Each structure stands twice: as structure tokens, then as C-alpha cells.
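User: Hey, my collaborator sent me this sequence without any context and asked if I could get a structure. I don't really work with proteins. Can you help?
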Amino acid sequence: MDKEAASSFVYAKASGILSRSFIGERANLLFEAKNLSQLWSAIFSEEVPLIPENLLADEIEKKSVQAFVDIFIKLISCYDKPDKLFLSLLHEYEYANIKQCVASVMNKEAMPAVVELGNYSGIKYQYYPDLQKMTNDTVFSFINHIPDSKEYLEMCKKLDDMYITEIYDAVNSIQLTERSACKKLLFKQLQLKNVIWAARLMVFYGMTGEQILPLLSCVSDNVLTDEIASKAVKVLDLSPDDYQAWKKTEFSFLLNPCVTEVSWKIDPIWMENVLNSYVAKNAKAMFHQYPFTACVLICFFLLKKQELNYIRTVSEGLRLAADISEMKI
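Assistant: No problem. I've predicted the 3D structure and written it out in C-alpha cell form, which is a compact way to encode the shape of the chain:
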């Protein structure tokens, strides 16, 4: 159907789907599950499979992701020519798939379960484990041999930069009347993800700012002025246990609470959960603020991603027999 008709249909369809999704207040329904079987029944209409609990947790997460991707593909397929940005968002899973496949080849494992993208995937999985044949005539064609551990990390960094650049270029390619709102939503998320990545490298790997700088995701050759990376550069000189220094930054809303400054250390996992909630809150507001525009499917994508975060949190909590009532994010 033409773009105007497709945009109207997609907005109505996406609105209905979101009203039934586990976001906002409805997310509490997930946290009421007492076991993984209850969680399965809350999410899916099919009978609970007769498999061990640890496998059921994995199945819930995988099935939830695939169900979301299938819905997203149906929505973008309503357009005769979907916006490049819609396809770029979907490609997040293509990049994740190739990383998984390379890791499995390195470990001499069977092909991993990948997210199926149908006609929107270029990777030739039937040739696994031959990486050269799998990636031939795709943007991943540089992945043509089995890397060692160092090469794999460099490859992952290159893939991350490629994906962020794809999103960046796609946002800048949409029509001007819709571009501002899309940039506000997506670029802010990418910038803050870089800040959290820097914090993660400080805390979990003890890296210095000098070591972290080349590892930040960029869309240009100059990390210091890069539109996506430059904000993260500002925190590289901060100590991960200096609460007062972090509190003075524009990222203070991401910080974990400080009970006592003597024992405080920045918590990247806390920061990531706050960011996910922040992005979902903005996406929810913008979904109805910009109907019949590209912003609708961007917001839909981000809101459903937050639903997946909730499902993963509850699933992992139940698998580990944790108190999920204290795990709400």
C-alpha cells in the first residue's frame, strides 16, 4: 500500500499491539509470576513445553525475541518501500547473529540459534561454519576466516561501529519534517550507551581513560568531536568511585544511589536499567505525539525492546530462584 495508507494502518496496528504489551503498568503482570511455567502462560497462548526449567527460561527469551521481530517485520512490510531506518533497526539482530556465529565457529560448536529475519537477512546460514561463504556479497564479507580472540574483539568493535553508523546515516536520510524527533530519540540513546560502556570498562576491566578512548563507538574519524562519542569522552578522566564528580555531569540521572561516598562505586548495570526506562518513557510519549510518521515504528521498536528487557529480567530471576519482586526495573 502507498506510504500514507501504510502509515495510518501501522499506527493503528502498533497502538493495538502496545496496549496488550507488557510495558508501563502491565509490566507488573510479569513480575507476579511465581515460576517459569506461569511466566510462559502469561506471555504465550501455547501450552508450556515439557522441558527442564533452565531450558524453559532460554526458550521464553528466544521465543519472545523472535515473536517481536516477526511482528516488526509484518509492520515494515506494509510499506511498498520501507524507510531505511526501519531496516537498520531490524539489522541490530543481523549484527548480533553474525557475532554469535563467529564465536560458535571459534569454539567448534554447532550453529547457534539465531533470530530469523526472513528476506531481510543477507547472511547465508546454510553454509555454516564456512564464514567466507556465509558472508559473501554482504556487508560482513570481511569476516572470511576464523579469527583468534584478539581479532574477534576487533571484529566486534568494527561491527558495533558499522551498526551505529548505519543507524546514524539512516536517521539523516529520512525527510526533514520527521528527522528531528527521530534524532532526539535515537542519538541520545546512542550517546548514553557510550557513556555506560565507558563506565563498564572502568569498573569491570579497570581500564583507564586512555585505554577506553579508542573503544568508544563512533560515526566519524575524530572521537573527540564525534556526535555519538564526544559526550562519553567527558567522563574518561573521572574515577569510578568519585560520586561528587559524576554527580556534576549531565549524566547524574543515571547514577546508582549513594548511601555513603566511602563505599560508592558507579554501577553500569544500574545505569543501563535507568537508560532503558528513560528511553521507553520518551518513546511512549513520542509514539502518540508524532502519529503517521517514521517516529511511530521507532518508538514501537524501543518500547517492545523494553518489554524484552522485563521478560529477560523475570525469566533469569525465576531461573535463579531470586526474589523477582525486588528486581523491577
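In plain terms: The chain has 13 helices and no strands. You can pass these C-alpha cells on to your collaborator as they are.
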